[in-house]
Amino acid sequence: MKIVGIAGSIVGSKTKIAMEAVMKKIHEQYPDADTTLVDLGELDIVFSDGRNYMEYEGDTGYVTQLLMAADAIIIGTPTFQASIPGTLKNIFDLLPVDAFRDKIVSMVATAGTAKHFLMVEQHLKPILAYMKATIIPTYVFIEEKDYYRKEIINDDVHFRIQRLVEDTVETFKAMDIVRKEKEAAYDF
User: Fold this and answer.
1) Of the candidates 167, 177, 17, 52, which has an alpha carbon nearest to the alpha carbon of residue 105?
2) Is 80 exceeded by the pLDDT of residue 188?
3) DSSP for 66-124?
4) Beta strand pairing status for 151-152 and 147-148?
5) Farthest CA pair distance, the chain
6) In this record, what's one Pfam family (predicted)?
7) Side-chain-facing half-sphere of 103: CA atoms under 13 Å
8) C-alpha to C-alpha distance for 30 and 105, rounded to whole angstroms
9) CA 77, CA 110: separation in Å to the nearest integer?
10) Full-prediction pTM beyond 0.90?
11) How much of the chain exceeds pLDDT 70, in percent?
């Protein structure tokens, strides 16, 4: 199982800290999973210009092909201006419309206050649904008060991360069984 985590911003540290906690939990619970954390702040991603995702080179080509090859994707996003950052939206724009078909996608959102908890519902989930993702309905929302000295200090957040990881992997396993049964139904 290939799991790709995305820290979807080029500024700040809270989303990356959250995604590192997610990836650590995956390693603890599912050590056989093939995982990669993509930190957009460490890469040089070009703006989408409408090309096929396979035509991009460098960091852009690396990220697009990594996402297309993934079985599950966990998207970490900060909340900027009550929406997702442009850097994350650009990643979606680089991919084909059905890029997330047969992929399990779950989400972690960070924000300064609880006022932005619906950003995932209003902005991110519609994009993922349009791109044909199988979306894990619950997500982890982490506020400013849940961090102290670049660490997540809220035990409930750690519990929700653990549950998100379990839901993501178990949903993939269930969907994989269904997919294999459908394929086996064809005689050729």
Assistant:
1) 167
2) no
3) HHHH-SEEEEEEE-BTTB--HHHHHHHHHS-TTTTTT-EEEEEEEESSGGGTTHIIIII
4) antiparallel
5) 58
6) FMN_red
7) 26
8) 17
9) 6
10) yes
11) 99
At 127-172, the pLDDT tens digits run 999 999 999 999 999 999 999 999 999 999 999 999 999 999 999 9
List, in order of start, the domains of the chain with CATH numbers: 2-184 (3.40.50.360)
Contacts for 131 with CB less than 8 Å, ≥ 6 apart: 92, 95, 97, 98, 99, 100, 101
pLDDT tens for residues 62-87?
Answer: 999 999 999 999 999 999 998 999 99
Two structure tokens written together for 108? 């972690």
**Angle formed at CA 157 by CA 155 and CA 159, multiple of 5 degrees:** 70
Type of residue at 134: T
